[in-house]
Design brief:
The protein is of the alpha/beta class and 341 residues long. It is built from 13 helices and 13 strands. The protein starts with a strand and ends with a helix.
Amino acid sequence: MSLLHTLGSAQNGGAEAYFVNLVGALTRAGVAQAAALRTHPGREAALRGFGVPTTILPFGQTFDFRTKPAIAAAARAANAKIILAWMNRAASLTPAGPWKRIGRLGGYYKLKNYRGFDALVGNTQDIVDWMVREGWPKDRAHFIPNFASAGAGEAIPRTSFDTPEGVPLLLGMGRLHSSKAHDVSLRALAMIPDAYLWIAGDGPEEAALRTLAEELGVATRVRFLGWRDDAAALYRTADVCVFPSRFEPFGNVVVQAWAHGIPVVAANSAGPSAIMTDGHDGYVVPIDDAKALAARTQEILTDPLRRTAFIAAGLRRIEQRYSEAAIVAQWRTLFDSLGGV
């Protein structure tokens, strides 16, 4: 008996990265798994490394007559008792059958795509409460947050990205999309004259962000790294993680920063404001407030005791609430309630 994952995204993003993390964690916990994915060389390689059989499918939207029956065939071949669908596209193409279906939601998705599913999992309590308000049965709505753990990878030489040793180094993580508010980080950087900023991610806003950096006069202190598979090394290299997302249901970057021992300054979008305690495990600033982001970042850079306290508090939060073992245990409890895998 096994668990089959379905994921129809071809993008690089937080949900997709967490998919790989959870598959790895469940593998380490001894859960037999298989996956049906849209093609993505990085994710395919990661699943091969876990020993997870993977079927590559088109996950098209119109006139895709292949994906749904192929998912059913993959489920039968894996003797899947549960299919876990990640996001809307996969959910809409995951067929009913003798297996149970779970939808995993990392945002406020269209619930029509999950009709007939046996359970939905939101990674924030707010998402779960929203599901219920939208009419989803409360007894089939479950809250399981994301876990975070320190990954492999030593700090890298700053000279790798033409950055002087000894200068304050800020790290921005996430897709180059307006919702991630990297523009706010650039405006904050203009108020921290001696700092450099590394932005790790790709997306449609890159050209606009590069232009803004030029206009602000900070282009010589900004490095656009593209999509990176060495997040752990980046966290260990930087001094402060800046995360001013305008819209963020959970905030993987926050818990990953905690797990890697780097203090974080985040905007008070839904996720960070729910999981962080301002002034205790980091700073939370208003959305779109570059001045506040700069001021709080400078406080951390100039106050070693506060930096140390934030790092310690973040690590405690991981141990108490967001550890791999704790989150895997919650998933296994849900699987067991549906007949087990």
